[in-house]
Specification:
heterodimer, A: 358 residues, eight-stranded mixed β-sheet, 12 strands, 21% strand, B: 318 residues, alpha/beta
């Protein structure tokens, strides 16, 4: 597979300016708002993170925490009424927020690709899958002739582990199983060897045994092609098996960020704590689960201060009125929580010591 | 355990697809559910676990086999007398509540139909009780479903199931459309209600770790039949069927170092279609321990250790 990358970098139409060691993706203070019938939803409220080549960032959070909108903002596919109203997104050296739609079309495909939760609705039911994979090259690589494109389609099917390609390319999506369809989606997304792959809940619609295969495949492809991956998921088991870095989102903000070990073994934010504790453990018997009381905030009228304050067991007076600053704990681990401020009255150890049973 | 509340014997439910093809959604399932226990039913999508639940409660007429509830046969025709004792909770709390009905009317529908209360005052008292028992309050009674979040709606669905004071509840993926932190609330609620009211549950889910934390016994389904049935502890300690083994090893554990050092059984081969299935073991196409016998004869569910049942030719004892 080593040949693929060189081949694309040399090709015309490539938009990225390759800077050695620069992060593939860097997001600074991005905010996204979406106009809806019920008012303006502040879906993302100032998130910053960066990702280098060959690494996987997992964005975790509940539904409505802003994780999908963060990613749609990055690739410029916000829904109607959605705008990035603050911040910058630098993708392979290009500021995406200021790029023209025409440039963005080039960026999507060459520099970044996205795969979605439900592979059945993202594939065209009336087109054979071979042509759907080829379409990427027809649109973006006018220099490739038909036989080169066919060869690439075969190569991609081989990469994602679909056997018998000569027959498979003539088949339609309904002739594939859920796991096979997701493999096709991954093949389409990686055809042009993008630097960054965004996977939005790629395994949620799949069965566990198939999920294991797809996660293994994503790890394997990353080793072969050195693609940076952003994976959005709510399954902490999936996070543990694929991620290098983790960003935990809540109420449109990143409330904790760090290496996967930091998040699982020395988490700082009470929400991260609660989230990890409320997951049923496969290796533990019938037991009462820890649960976070209440429900997530309404982002049409986001609360002042910390978004988690209303559900937090370690809440202090300051939490309801001022947004907590980002506290650094070294090694890229940070959390936005007032408990770690020097002036805090409650000791941070209280975070793990007080279970809040509903 | 005080004897079987529900007895399922050789239950099958087939559907006709196309002109002459048969889809065997449930094919010869036999099991017992004991009073006061939770039986978890796991399996991948399309394995027939929901169909089994719906046939057990009498929403579908069985193609073959019988279901006896407390000694009485269950069938769609005699639904009403058993409706008071068996209830169901569905997966999606958004589509299983009528958007035009007030919460109070949703909760009282069963009460009104079966004339379980004598006066209006008694009716509203009962509604208040139900709301309180699931962690909501009396003032929610006059609202409509759209005013509630997913977790709250699932609480309402649970309250509705409880309204006729049933003994047995079938919960079909009750938490899979909810967020993690809300899932825990609903599971805890279901367990508290079980302790208070002595309920018996058939808990259907695809998530093994969720099933484990609520079930006394677990049944694993594959393409319409039960391949393994055991006490939760025994199933996790000694999974015996090759499918159960693969399923358990595939579940991602929320612990990075454990996850890295783990050996996974990767299944290869395609899942068989439940339409016009060939003879032999259903799992044979993906099984590593497959022999000639597996292609010829379908294995029966055998008791390998006390209470531990497994349908595999290759596993003899535990």
């Amino acid at each position: 597979m080593a040949g693929i990358r060189a081949d694309v970098e040399a090709s015309p139409g490539t938009v990225f300016k390759d800077v050695i060691n620069a992060p593939v993706l860097s997001v600074k203070d991005m905010s996204v708002s979406i106009k809806t019938d019920n008012g303006i939803v502040r879906a993302v409220r100032g998130v910053s993170f960066s990702l280098s080549q060959g690494k996987t960032l997992a964005i975790v959070g509940e539904s409505g925490s802003g994780k999908t909108m963060t990613c749609k903002g990055i690739i410029g596919l916000l829904p109607p009424g959605g705008v990035i109203d603050n911040g910058t997104v630098t993708l392979c050296g290009l500021d995406v927020t200021r790029a023209h739609e025409k440039t963005m079309r080039q960026v999507r495909g060459f520099n970044v690709s996205m795969i979605f939760q439900d592979p059945l609705t993202s594939l065209n039911p009336t087109t054979p899958i071979g042509r759907q994979i080829e379409e990427m090259m027809v649109l973006h690589r006018p220099d490739m002739n038909e036989s080169a494109r066919k060869a690439r389609v075969f190569e991609m099917l081989d990469l994602v582990g679909i056997s018998n390609p000569a027959e498979r390319i003539r088949q339609y999506p309904h002739q594939f199983s859920g796991g096979m369809r997701q493999r096709v989606m991954i093949a389409i997304a990686l055809t042009l060897s993008p630097k960054l792959l965004i996977a939005d809940e790629p395994t949620t619609a799949l069965d566990v045994t198939i999920q294991a295969q797809i996660l293994e495949l994503m790890n394997d492809i990353q080793r072969k092609t050195n693609t940076a991956i952003v994976i959005i998921t709510h399954n902490l088991g999936v996070v543990a098996s694929v991620a290098d870095h983790v960003a935990v989102m809540y109420g449109g903000r990143i409330i904790e960020e760090g290496g996967v070990e930091n998040i699982f073994y020395s988490r700082k934010h009470p929400y991260t704590q609660g989230l990890l504790d409320s997951v049923p453990k496969i290796n533990r018997a019938k037991e009462r689960l820890f649960s976070i009381p209440g429900s997530p905030p309404d982002l049409v009228n986001p609360p002042e201060g910390c978004p988690f304050a209303a559900r937090c067991g370690s809440r202090m007076r300051v939490c309801g009125s001022y947004v907590p600053p980002i506290m650094e704990f070294g090694g890229g681990h940070s959390a936005a929580c007032w408990l770690y401020d020097k002036r805090a009255t409650a000791p941070p150890s209280a975070v793990s010591a007080t279970p809040m049973l509903s | 355990m005080a004897g079987a509340l529900l007895e399922v014997n050789g239950l099958s439910r087939y559907f006709t697809v196309g002109k002459r093809k048969t889809l065997k959604a449930v094919d010869g399932v036999s099991m017992r559910i004991y009073r006061g226990e939770t039986l978890g039913l796991v399996g991948e999508s399309g394995c027939g676990k929901s169909t089994l639940g719906r046939t057990v409660i009498g929403l579908y007429e069985p193609t073959a086999g019988t279901v006896r509830f407390d000694g009485m046969p269950v069938s769609p025709k005699r639904g009403s007398s058993l409706a008071l004792r068996m209830q169901m909770i569905f997966q999606d709390p958004y589509t299983s509540l009528n958007p035009r009905m007030k919460i109070s009317d949703i909760l009282a529908e069963g009460i009104d139909n079966h004339r379980l209360v004598r006066s209006k005052a008694e009716r509203s008292k009962r509604i208040a009780e139900l709301l309180e028992s699931v962690g909501l309050s009396e003032e929610h009674a006059n609202r409509y479903p759209h005013e509630f979040s997913g977790g709250q709606r699932q609480r309402i669905c649970i309250a509705r199931a409880l309204s006729v004071r049933p003994d047995f509840i079938i919960a079909d993926e009750p938490i899979s459309s909810l967020d993690v932190s809300i899932q825990a609330q609903v599971i805890n609620l279901m367990r508290d209600l079980q302790d208070e009211m002595g309920l018996t549950y058939l808990f259907i889910a695809h998530d093994m770790s969720v099933v484990r934390c609520i079930s006394n016994r677990i049944g694993v389904m594959y393409l319409g039949s039960l391949v393994e049935l055991a006490e939760s502890e025994a199933l996790f300690a000694k999974p015996t069927h090759p499918y159960t083994q693969a399923l358990l090893s595939a579940i991602p554990i929320p612990d990075p170092s454990e996850e890295r050092g783990r050996h996974r059984i990767m299944l290869s081969g395609a899942v068989r279609s439940p339409i016009d299935m060939p003879p032999g073991c259903r799992f044979a196409s993906r099984c590593q321990a497959r022999t000639k016998l597996c292609d010829e004869r379908e294995p029966e569910l055998r008791e390998l250790a006390p209470g531990h049942f497994c349908a595999c030719h290759q596993s003899n004892c535990i």
